[in-house]
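ARCHIVE CARD
Drawer: 12
Card no.: 0347
Subject: one protein chain, sequence and derived structure
Cross-reference: see card 0346
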Amino acid sequence: MKTFQELNFKEHYDSQKDDLLNDLYIPALANTKKYRRVVGYFNSKSFASVAVGLKDFILNNGKMDLLCGVDLNPDDVNMIKFASEHPEEILTSSFLKELNSIEDEIIKHNVEVLGWMIANKLLRIRVAVKVDSNGNPVPKGEGILHYKIGLMYDSQNNLISFSGSVNETAAAWEKNLEEFHLFRDWKKGEIGHLKDNLDTFNNIWNSKWDQYKILDIPEAVEQKLVDDAPEDFEDLVFTYTFSTPKSTTGTVIEKVELYDYQKDARTKWIENDKKGIFVMATGTGKTFTALGCLEKALEDSSKLLTVITAPTKHLLPQWERSINNYGIKYDKLLFATGDTNWRNELEDQLLDLRLNSINNLIVLTTHDTLASNDFISLLSKKKRFNYFLIGDEMHGLGSPYRRNGLIEHLYDFRLGLSATPTRYSDEESEFLFNFFGDELYTLSLREAIYEYYNPKTGMSYLTPYNYCPYFLSLNEEELEEYRGITQSLFSCKDDEFDKRKQNLLFKRANIIKDAQNKFEVLRKILDSIDDYSGLIVYCSPNQIDKVMDILSEYNIVAHKFTMEEKTKPLEKYGGMSERDLILDDFAKGNYQVLAAMHCLDEGVDVPSASQAIFMCSSNSSREFIQRIGRVIRRSPGKTHATIYDLIVKPSGNLFDKSLEAYEKSIFEREKERYKKIGYIAENYSYVIDKLNENL
């Protein structure tokens, strides 16, 4: 970043001789850390144009305060007689109507940028409603906030301010004849004017003027903006207006371009007869890599049915946004989930494909629906064109039921995506690899943290983390029960019925997971943490209530995240599901901690999470890596993550020599998993010393 003094800004700008957008606004934002702006009035176009040039501002972790004026219709004012007490009810209706009516793709993309900023705590929006002497909002035509002031701070806290005729619209910056003055705090003759602009903004923002009622943007509107925005920075589409030359205007839409490693993966997939598996760590762009393959498949096919399957419904809207942001052209896209309506719609669209009414159909579904009889029977009727299956989190497709959907003769092209494709069962893994094909491209967790850097941000794709293992023992009662089960396992004959062994292993694993001494260690960890924000505590069903009680003892604002929270969008949550609302509140800091179970292991992106406590873990490195992936995604301002792992080390006190040797051989597998995670951690040396000391 440059300082404002290095940019050599002028005192006066005039659109007749200056390119306001490219000479001032975009380069200023690219080097701004804090931006405070008054917008003359709210509508979707002026609101969206605030996002012009924000890409570099966001990458610099810039923070924005946006103040909008409001021009209300008489009907809006008359709608609520007690508007002086509840004017937000007027604004919610008016604003949502405006946002829901956006059709222009450029405006829509820019509004998504602002929604993403809100979700990542980079943007605060307040609204200035002009009121009469009784505090009631005035109707349209009786005045609005119409100041046109911008305040920008650079990394050295230098301040510039502009004020004049230019409004925060694309037309104002590009097409209108506009002029304004720029004031710089390092120029003595300009400090007085700059201070006036600063005082004006602060007085309005902080409700110092009686003629305006200042409100935070209504919660429903904020939720609408956040809900419509992509979750990942990589999925944002930055658009802006440009003039080259002045007499011509056009629009630049920053098209998604695959990085070299993504192109390499796509090439290997094409060369392998359009079949294979990409093993890519979370946050490294496997979605766009897959869409690059889809783009190629569409080029090579006159007609194509593409089925994209994911573990949960929650992931499907993310895929839809990515498809649109990438620019994939399709005739129809539909969601086939557990609802009853999808069957008729899918049947109709398949018929249109067969009758040549459409040539490109994309179906977004879940692993369970993919394996259902209804889905299979519909796709199996009169197959006359190519089918392409993209399996997101493909390791979840190997169960006996779900593999019913992996029909060899049905899908001509196949692509499996996963950070951890290997399942618990060798037989399940073998089936998945036989269906999807070989691992064609691998980008490991370590590479994504330390070796591969995002050209857009200059940072690695994932956040480095520290690994903090805490070792504990079973209490005497648990140890006695553990010993009895181990004795039974040790005495089992090699050819004994497998179900009995599995039940014994399950019972023994639960003793480890639910060890009572873990709650004492949890308190110890909480005592060591300065800031609880962005913390996820992974629990078993038997632990979660006690964990919530302990969090309450520490006055921590927490919420459960289990299978009980609903995934269906509801009107009372502003069109969000209960689960989405919890994650949204967590991202905003309304909840400091989530107490979570298996449903947060994979597929749910929580970039704001920066620390996790593992109260229970299985032997599966897949589960462990998936959980780490929840807290090492890049997010503005996040530089590190911390993983706390509670490890039960069974004592040998109650074991005879033969059982002790047996137990050690089993625990060696645990040791390898801990080493694997510790090897990737920044504090690797400490971790290995700690593990060798205790294991």
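Annotation on reverse: Confidence is low (pLDDT under 50) at residues 72-84, 165-177, 241-253. The chain is about 40% helix and 20% strand.
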